[in-house]
Amino acid sequence: MLASGVDGAGARPAAGLLVGAGRAVGEFVRQVLAVAEAEVRKLRHDPVELLTRAVQPTLWLVVFGQVMARVRAIPTGDLSYLDFMAPGVLAQSVLFIAIFYGISLIWERDLGVLHKYMVSPAYRGALVTGKALSAGIRGLTQAIIVYLLAVAMGVRVRLTPVAVGGVLLSILMGAAIFSTLSLVVACLVKSRERFMGIGQVLTMPLFFASNAIYPLSIMPRWLQWISHVNPLTYQVDALRALMIQGGQAAIGLGTDFAVQAAVLVALLWVAAWLYPGAVQ
């Protein structure tokens, strides 16, 4: 009887800890979704932004893609150049949107919104994760645009549920990675002019030091080393395998998603740590 009473007394604190942890996780998720919903609402109020975002992928696919397909200077294996390039254009579109996402943090600081966030009981990690999620949702609009363009141009798009689901997951992760990197930069530089300058400096090296428009195999050795530490490379590799009929992952789908997940977690941690200092 005594042993039974001791066991029961020990179980109650453990159950209480589990309930408390569950509530904390639930509150964290609720805060993440609230921040993401507030950010996505801005997009709903400015539908013209969706149209302007269609310009860049259209130019890359319709102009650059068709010209390079005629030249046939880049070896793409069994894929046509347009098939090879379409996932890279999608990843590039997501990158170009997400990499400048941090400027919203600077605007929020100047308007006093960021200070209100900081004095609220919200988790700092939830604020950063919510913004990353909203950037991922914005990136999904690019998938719709690129898919429609690709189908219209005869790209052999894979439309099975598993493939489309994998593409959407990769887009969410890629947009979250680069938007969180953008938030880290915004926390450090704290001025719009410097932020835009650094964003411009980051965008093109990330794009050209990846496998978006040419395969890793034709890169010089030094560029291959750089591309292997570039998260965009892993996103493009996953998209090419999932999005295109006959597409294959040169690196491996498991590795692609594992690297993206690891980079995202690391950047979320850094951004949450730096976030309070952005108020100053």
From TrEMBL:
Compartments, as annotated in UniProt: Cell membrane; Membrane
Entries under InterPro entries matching the protein: ABC2_TM, ABC2_TM_bact-type, ABC_2_transport, Nod_factor_ABC_transporter
Alphabetical UniProt keywords: Cell membrane, Membrane, Transmembrane, Transmembrane helix, Transport
Regions that span the bilayer: 89-107, 128-150, 162-189, 201-223, 257-275
Main subcellular localisation: membrane
Its membrane topology: Multi-pass membrane protein
Superkingdom, natural source: Bacteria
Domain ABC transmembrane type-2 as annotated: residue spans: 48-278
Protein family according to the UniProt entry: Belongs to the ABC-2 integral membrane protein family.
Protein name: Transport permease protein
Organism: Geochorda subterranea
